[in-house]
Amino acid sequence: MLIIPAIDIKEGRCVRLCQGVMSEETEYSKDPSGVAKRWAHEGAELIHIVDLDAAMEGMPKNLLAIEKIASAVNVPLQIGGGIRNEKTAERYLEIKGVARVIIGTLALSEPHVVESLAKRYPGRIAIGIDAKDGFVAIRGWVEVTKTKAADLAKRFEHMGIAAIIYTDISRDGMLEGPNVPATKKLVDTVNIPVIASGGVSKIDDIAALKKIKAIGAIVGKALYSGAIDLREAIKTARD
Fold first, then answer.
1. Which CATH number fits the domain 2-238, given the four candidates 3.40.350.10, 3.20.20.70, 3.30.565.10, 3.30.70.1230?
2. Of 67, 84, 109, 212, which is least packed with CB atoms within 10 Å of its CB?
């Protein structure tokens, strides 16, 4: 299982939010590329980057910061936040060092676009499914739909999707532990690899997610607060 450090970018800064609320931010660095270097030095094999401003506004807002990260480290990046059309996805995928992009809102509103991207960029498209009480939330988590997370995931089976990034919004940034039962349900329901996100707060959470066969865990606030040591988490995931 991969341990994937998260770098959330807002106005060019590395921050963490609580449950995706933009006003509930904690700034950790004004230099996201420096943070990426730290995670690379500590053994990260993949880094998760989210443009928070883009998630709210629907267009890239921190492209320069992301390009700087990509040029600063030799670790593959996965990029999410506000990727609402093919042009934006293509722009990110052209950046050297970007392994894949994460499609969220667009996966629900225009699944045919996701299918087209997956055919053109095999293994480089991931689906971001952010859920509240089991239902998909879109547009920077401000709109909760009537679509169940598992139902959305199943639409993309047999399309060559690289992974599903599953986030339980209620757990994100709260250090309360991931929603293991909901993640397990998704792992057991679809044949697409699942990466867990939201709430990972201790080494035991890593072990629990490994046990249910999640292929990765995105870790954010717990790394920044020191609750989890990245090297220890990577060792736990590999053992």
1. 3.20.20.70
2. 109
- From first to last of the 239 residues of the chain, give the pLDDT tens digit: 999 999 999 999 999 876 657 767 789 999 999 999 999 999 999 999 999 999 888 889 999 999 999 999 999 999 999 999 999 999 999 999 999 999 998 999 999 999 999 999 999 999 999 888 888 987 756 678 899 999 999 999 999 999 999 988 765 544 567 889 999 999 999 999 999 998 899 999 999 999 999 999 999 999 999 999 999 999 999 98
Domain boundaries along the sequence of the chain:
2-238
Residue 133 bears catalytic tag: no
- Retrieve residue 234's tokens: 């990577």
- Does the pTM of the predicted model rise above 0.85? yes
**How is residue 169 annotated by DSSP?**
G
Is 172 annotated in the active site?
A: no
Find the catalytic residue in 51, 53, 130, 205.
130
Q: Do the beta carbons of residue 8 and residue 198 sit within 8 Å? A: no
Residues in the chain: 239
